Records
---
Amino acid sequence: MYPKDVGYEPPNDRKSSPDKGNVQKGEPILLLTLGQEEVIVSSMNVKTLYKATVLVAVVAPLLGTVFAIYQLWERVVYWPDIILMLVSYMITAMGVTMGFHRMLTHRSFQAHPVVKCLLLIFGSMALEGPAIQWAATHVKHHAQADREGDPHSPLEGFFHAHVGWLFKDDMADPNIYCRHLLKDPIVMFISRTFLLWVVLSFIIPFAIGGWSGLLWGGLVRIFLTHHVTWSVNSVCHTFGKRQFETTDQSRNEWIVGLLAFGEGWHNNHHAFPRSAFHGLSWWQFDLSGYIIRLFERVGLVHDVYRVPAETLARRLLKPTGAVEIEPVTADKTL
C-alpha cells in the first residue's frame, strides 16, 4: 500500500504521458533536447548504454579512490586536497539529502527558487542520476518498501540493495511516481542538463587543484557520496535499531546518520516520510535538519513540515515488543 505521507498521490496505472505514448513503462529512455524539440530514443542500445554508463560511474570513482589511498600511504597528499574533498563532499551531499530527498521527493519544505535551483544542481553533481529519475525511484521505494517491486530492498541481497539494483532495466517511471514534477520548469531544466552539472563537478576541482584536485574533489568525493547514499538503502534496512513501528525493515544507524548528514535515521524517516527532520531526538545528529532550520529562520525556505509531538508518541514502539500496527488508509494523514 502506498505510504500515507510521502507527499505524493498514489501511483496510477498510466504507462506514459500523451506525448511519450510509445515508451513502455519502466523502460530506460534517452531524452535529447534539440532546439525546441524533444527526441526520445528507446531501444536495447539505450539499455546497453545505460548499464555501461552506470558501470563507469561506479568503477571509476572506486579506482580513483584506490589510487588516492596509495598516494596517502606514500604521503604525497596535501591538506588542500583533503579540504577540497571535504568541502565538495558536503556541498554535493547536501544537494542529495536536502535537495533531491527532502525538498524534491517528499516536499518537506518549499525553497526560494534560487535555493531550489542550487540544491538540485549540487545533487546532480553527486552523479546519482537526474533529479526527476532520483525522485521517481525513491517514491517507488516508499510505495513498495521491502516488498516485491522495491527498487533496492536487501530482501534481494545486501549487494543488490547497495549497488546491484542500479544495473536493473526496470527503472521507476516519472510519469507514474512523480508526474507532477514533469510540469516543474526548474526540475526539468536541471534534469535535462544533468550531464552539464556532472562535467562541472569535475572541471571545478580540476581548476582549483589541478590533477590532485580532480582526484580528491572529483573521484574520491563521488565515491564517498555514492557509498554513503547507498548505505542508507542497504545498511539502514539491515542493521541498527527501530524506534518507530513501520511496515518495512527500516532501521536507525548512527554511523550512517553522521556520514549522510541525518539520512541514517532511516526508521524515523520511514515512519514519517514528510518530516523535514530525520533526527527526532536531541541526540540524533541531523546536519541537514539543522541547515533547514537555519534557512527557515532567514527566509530561504518555508512550509517546513514537522511531525506533531502526539503523533510521534503514538507511533513509538512499545518497550515490551508488543506493538500495534496502525492500518494505512488513503484518507488518513499525519
---
Amino acid sequence: MKKRKLTSKRVNSWFHKSFQKEFVMMEYSLAISMIVKEVHAKTILSKSKVHDYTINLYIGCEHACTYCYARFMKRFTGHREEWGEFVDVKINAPGLLQHEIRKKRIGRVWISGLGDPYQPLEKEYESMRRCLEILSRHGWPVTIQTKSPLVFRDIELLRKFNGLEVTFSIATADEKIRQLFEPNSPPLKERNETLERLHSQGIRTSAMIAPLLPNAEGLVEQLKGKVDHVLIDRMNYHYADWVYRKYKLEYAMTEDFFTQKKVELANAFEKEGIPCQLLF
C-alpha cells in the first residue's frame, strides 16, 4: 500500500487540442490537501442493483459534492479526512478485471457509484481507460456516469463499443447553485459542451438530474439536442442539509418542491421529445 499527500489545485476545465491530441488541465482554485492512497483490491467486478455489475476504481472523490451518498464509505475505510480530501486508488483494478471478466456471465457494467471514474486523478492513473479497453475487447455493454469532461479523452475507445452510454450528472441549470452544492466539480457549461460533443460523435448520452436542486428548469433548453433521454431523482440523503439552511434554500427540501418540479420537468422534456424517467 502506497500513501502520499498531494497539495494541488482543483481541476476545473479540460479542453482538447486537436492538433496535439492531448488534454490540458486548467486550474481554478486555491491549493488543497489531498490524501491519495494506492491500494490493492480483492475484487473489482461486483453485482449491482442499478445494472448487472458495477466497477468502482476509486474510493473517495475529488469533486467533494456536499450531498454525495458515497460518504457512507468512510464507515468502512477508516478515513478521518473530510469527504473530498482523500481518494483510494485501486491500482490493480485492470489486472483484476482481466481475470474476473473471463469467469462472469456478460452483463451491463455501471462505472461508477462510489467516485467519479473521470475525477482528476484519472489523468495520472488511467485506470478507467485500461478497464474500458478490457471491456471493449470482451464486448461488454457499459454505462459511464460522470461529471467530468475528461471522458472525451477516450472518445476513440468509446466509439468501439456496442451498447455504451455516457450519463452526465447535472442537478441544476444554475451555476451559482452548482457552486454551493458541488464546489469542486466541473462547471455546468463544460458538462453540457461535452455531452454535445459525445452526442455528435454518435455516442448514446443521457443526463441524470439528481439530486433535483433549485433552478433545474433551464436544463430542458440546455440539454436539447445533446441527450437521448434524462432521469430525474430527488434528494434522498441529508448530508447537504446544512447547505440548504445556510443559503436559505429550505423550500427546495420539501415534498411539494420535488413533486411540483418533477412534473414540470417531465412535461417540458416530453414537449421537446426527450424521454424522461422519473425515479421517485
---
Amino acid sequence: MNVLKTSLLAAAIALGAGVAPAPAKADVMQLIQESIADAPDLSHLPREQVQLVRPPYVHDHEQVASSGPRVVEFTIPIVEKEVVIDDQGTTLQAMTFGGSIPGPMMVVHEGDYVEITLVNPSTNTMPHNIDLHSATGAMGGGDITIIAPGEEATMRFKADRTGAFVYHCAPGGTMTPWHIMAGMHGTIMVLPREGLKDADDNPLRYDKLYYLGETDFYVPRDDDGNFINYNSHAESLPGMLEEMRGLIPSHVVFNGAVGALTGEDSMTAKNGETVMFVHSQALRDSRPHLIGGHGDYVWETGKFANAPESDLETWFVRGGSAAVALYTFKQPGLYAYVNHNLIEAIELGAAAHLVVEGDTWDHDLMTLPSAPGAIRPDTDLSLPVER
C-alpha cells in the first residue's frame, strides 16, 4: 500500500503542543485530488449564492426548507486589519473572516451541500484556512484550504447533521490559537429541513435571530499599565503569545469590542416577538444569561437532534461550540445579555443590550405596590431568625 506523507496541519498542531507528531497518515490533499473523479455529480441540484451579512445579523433564510437539498454557495474574503476593541482606543491587529469579529454566520439545512470559496487577498501578510466543526474529514477542511496571500480555494462538504457549529482558522501550531484570538472564528447553523421542534415534537419558530460571537483578547500592558498598540501582526505576536499563555484575558467581548452591542448598536425586538440567540465561543467557556428574561428553549450544546431544555436562567457554552436559545419577550424595556461571570461582563466587556419596544406592561408578571421612597415607620426591620 502506498503510504502518503503526514498531514502537515496535523503535524504542526502536534508540534505546537509540544508532542511528537502522529504516525504517517494519508496526505488528504493528494488523496482528494487523485480521486476527484469520484466526487458526486451535483449538477441536478439547484444552486443558491448567499450574500453574507455582518453579525449580529444573519442573512435571510427559510426556517423550514421548502424544497429538497441544494448547493449553497458562500464567498468569504479574509481581511487583516487594525480594529479598536474598547473605549480607551486600544487597538488589535485583527484577522477576520469577512471583515468582522466574529465572522459572518451561515445558515443551511440538513442535506444541503455547503460550498465555501475562501479568498486571501494579496494585501494580507499570512496564510489562512478554515476548519468547520460541521464538516467531516480533512481537519474540518483545514487541511485542504490553506491559502497564501493572493490565493483562493473552494471546498464543499455535506451538511449531514443539524445544529450550530463553530468554524475558525487553524493554520497549525501556535498560529491556530493566535488567529482565533485575533478574530478568525464564526458559526454555521444547519437547520432540520422540517424546522425546529420542542421536546414534544411541536414546531418552534423565531421572529428574529441575533448572533453573538464571544472573543477573549490578550493585549499586553506597558510599564505604565497602558495597553500596548502594535503596528503590525508580526510586531504583536511575541507579546500576545506571552499573554495568551497566562490564560488571563485583558478583554472578553461580544462581537469584537467592548460595547459593540450597546447604545445605538443594541439589538432590538418588539414585545411578543420570539428571538433566537446564537452564542459562540471558540476558545473559552461562557455562561450567558438574559437579565429580565429566560431561555424558553435552549439547545445548550447547539445540536438540534437533542431536545431543547426549557426555562433556563443561565446556560453553558463550551469552548469550541455554539449554543442556541429562544425567548419570547413578555415585557417591554431594556434587557442585558451577559456572560454571567459578571466580572468578565462588567469589567472586561462581555455584555450586550436588547431594547424591546412596547407600550403595555403585564402587571400580573411584575408590578410595584410601593415605589422607592423613605422607609415607612411601620416597616418590619427584623432580621431572619435562626432555627
---
Amino acid sequence: MEARDLPARVLSGDPLGSMSPLTSPQSGSTVFAAAVVGGGVMGAFSALTAAQLGMRVLWFGPTESDRLDGAQARNYALSPSSVDLLKRLGVWPTLEELSCKVTRMEVFSGSTRVDLTASDSGSEFLSAMVTHGHLLSALEQAVQFCAPITRIVERPSSLSVFADHAQLTAGDRVFEARLILGADGARSWVRNQAGLLWGQRDYEQSAIVATFRTEFPHGGVAAQWFDDGEILALLPLADPHRVSMVWSRSPMDSNALALAADGIAQQVTDRTSQRFGRLDLEGVLTAAPLRMLLTDQLTAMRVALVGDAGHTVHPLAGYGLNLGIQDLLCLESIWKHHRADPGSRIALQAYNKKRGPQLKRVQWGLDLLQRSVVQTHPTWQRAREIGMRLVAHTGLLRQLLIQQALGPH
C-alpha cells in the first residue's frame, strides 16, 4: 500500500497549506514538487520536511529495516536542533522514551580530563542518543500516515533534467518533479547522474562500532578518550546499563574484526580505566572506513544534495546526521519562499550559496581537530594536555566548546 492510499496525518508545527501536484503541459502527467531519492533515515527526514510545507513528495528507495550491513547497530547523537525538527514532524513522541539525553561529556587525554555539561550553557541536554532502527522505524511510520508523500519502494533507473522539471524512471513508470533531492548516501546515484564533482580524504582509519553492557549505570554521561593516535568514545543508550562504542583506529578487515570480538570487551574496559565498570559485548562488531567526502557544488540543474550524498565528516564530534538535518533546515527556509518551484535556479543558488561555505568550515574544522588529536609525538601530546587543562579551568572556553557540541550550524 502506498502512502497516498493511507489516511492523512496532521503533522505538528504550522504547515503552510496543501499544495496539489501540478500537471505537465507537455505530457499531461502529474508534476510533484519534489522527488526524494534514498530509502534510509535521511530520505525519510527529507520527505517529511518537504511534506510539512504542503509540498507533494515522491519518495524513492527500498525499505531498509532489514539491512544486513550492520546499520541496525548504529546509533545517532541527535543535536537539540535535530530533536526540534523531529518534534515539528510529530516523530519525537514515539522516540523520546527510546532515547537517552546526554547531559555531560567527559573528555580524556593522558592524565587530563575536561567535563562539558549542558547546564553550563543553560541547555537541557548536549545530545539525544537514539538507535538507527528506532529512528528509521519512527520516521517510516510517520511517512505512512502523511498523505502528501507517495512512496515508491524501488530505486530509479534514470534521471533526465529539463528547464522546468526533472524526470525519474523506475521500472516502466516515469515520474516528474520540480526538484530531485539526493538523500542517497555517500555513494550517491543522484550525485553521479547529475555530474556533480566530488573528492575525498581518506583518514586511513576505521570506525569500529559495538554495543556493551556496563557494570555501572552510565547516568547519561558520554566519555571520549584521545590516546595513541586513536579516538575512543562510549555513548549512553536508553538502557542505563548499555553504551555504544565508536572507536576510530587502524583499519580492520572482516577476519581481524572477527578475531578482535573475543577480547574487545576487556580491552575497552582497560583502555577506559573501567569508567563504567566491566564491559560485556552485546551483538557483533561492525567497521566502516573513515573518509571526508567533499563536493564542488551541492546543486545542479533541478537537483540538490543533502546528507552524506553531499558531505561526510570524521565521527569524532557526532556531526554526521546532524549536518544533513541542517541541510534540510536550510532548504526549508528557502522553500517557504519558493513553494511553487522549489527546484528553480534561484532557490538552488540560494541553497548552494548559504550552505556550501557553512559545510566547508565544519568539514575542515573537524579535519584540523582530527589531525591534532591523533598526533602521537610527545610535543603534540603535551600541547594537547595543556590546551585541555586551559579549557578545564576557563568557563568561557568550556561554553564555546559546549556550543559546538550542541550541533553544527
